[in-house]
Design a protein that fits this description.
The chain is mainly α and about 325 residues long. The protein has 14 helices and eight strands. Helix 1 crosses helix 3, helix 5 runs parallel beside helix 6 and helix 5 crosses helix 8.
Length: about 325
């Protein structure tokens, strides 16, 4: 069958840039605010490691007085009653532009459904649609891409319907899967768009927050304006001190430190510029760099991003065991 050109439409298009930015300070405050009795700095940094947030982000939160130092304990200026899991979900909904769905009558809004609706810009009647309603709307748009003649009985269903084998197969194929469940297809769509795991509520919350995490523009501009090699090296040492690249001890992958610095709001330039400053700091004896040992495992992408040319040799790690 030949489809007329004016019948065909574009299939649903994912827009990963749909997220609203979240600052590192917001995440720090949300975590410490979820701890009713406060927490130690080391505990906070450990919990925030999944977002590559390091001490500079925590110090920025303290400087803004959103976090208060009570002796050795950190407390939020305004404590929240939500748990850390609920706080992460609320941050993820905020990134999706649906902060109101984290409270009130819509507190049980399906994060995955909201994420899919926002990612694909779905025009739906429900403010907080169910996962089934979102899937059906996506399927309708997928079929519309084949021409209106295929969707004469599927124009705009009033409620979600159960997928039959053919509908399920089409939905899975749209998600790039040959087999599996529609829930796995949802996770595949979100994971591919936002570059992180999305199979559980905890994973999806963290992935959305990481995707929305943006450096503080003001702090970045000030760092760039007042750049000094010794100050740069000091910031890198502080970042590396709270990071680890498993299973290695005493050294951290260069790209991992770079990502943590961006998340903390530091103006590090491009990855290549960061490496140039590292090389200069190493030559001045301000930092120690090490080469990757082929005897140990290292993610190929992380290895390649961390590769730094130093004369005729190369380095991949920043040493932190002596700090």
């Amino acid at each position: 069958m030949t489809i007329k050109r004016d019948d065909a439409r574009l299939p649903p298009q994912a827009n990963p840039k749909c997220l609203k930015p979240i600052s590192p300070v917001e995440i720090v405050v949300a975590h410490i605010g979820s701890r009713r009795d406060g927490c130690l700095k080391a505990e906070a940094l450990d919990a925030l490691a999944e977002f590559s947030l390091a001490e500079p982000a925590l110090e920025a939160a303290i400087a803004s007085r959103a976090i208060i130092e009570d002796g050795s304990v950190l407390r939020a200026a305004q404590s929240a009653s939500a748990s850390w899991a609920d706080a992460r979900r609320a941050l993820a909904l905020k990134a999706l532009g649906a902060a109101e769905a984290a409270n009130g009558v819509r507190a049980r809004a399906d994060l995955g459904a909201v994420a899919l609706r926002t990612l694909y810009g779905l025009d739906m009647r429900a403010v907080s649609p169910s996962r089934g309603e979102v899937r059906c709307e996506l399927l309708r748009l997928i079929l519309l891409a084949l021409g209106d003649r295929f969707t004469i009985h599927l124009l705009r269903p009033q409620r979600s319907f159960s997928f039959d084998p053919m509908s399920r197969r089409i939905y899975l194929a749209f998600a790039g899967l040959d087999s599996g469940t529609v829930l796995e297809a949802d996770a595949a769509l979100l994971s591919s768009a936002f570059k992180g795991p999305a199979g559980t509520l905890a994973d999806l919350s963290a992935t959305l927050i990481r995707a929305a995490l943006k450096p503080e523009e003001k702090g970045a501009a000030e760092t760039k304006e007042a750049f000094r090699l010794d100050g740069f090296a000091d910031s890198v040492r502080k970042l590396a001190l709270h990071l680890e690249t498993r299973p290695y001890i005493g050294r951290v992958a260069i790209a991992q430190v770079y990502d943590a610095g961006l998340a903390a709001g530091l103006a590090l330039g491009t990855l290549d510029e960061f490496k140039q400053h590292l090389a200069e700091a190493a030559r001045e004896g301000l930092l120690d760099l090490e080469r990757y040992d082929i005897a140990g495992p290292l993610d190929p992408n992380l290895k390649e991003r961390s590769r730094l040319r130093l004369g005729r040799d190369e380095r991949h790690f920043i040493v932190n065991q002596w700090m």
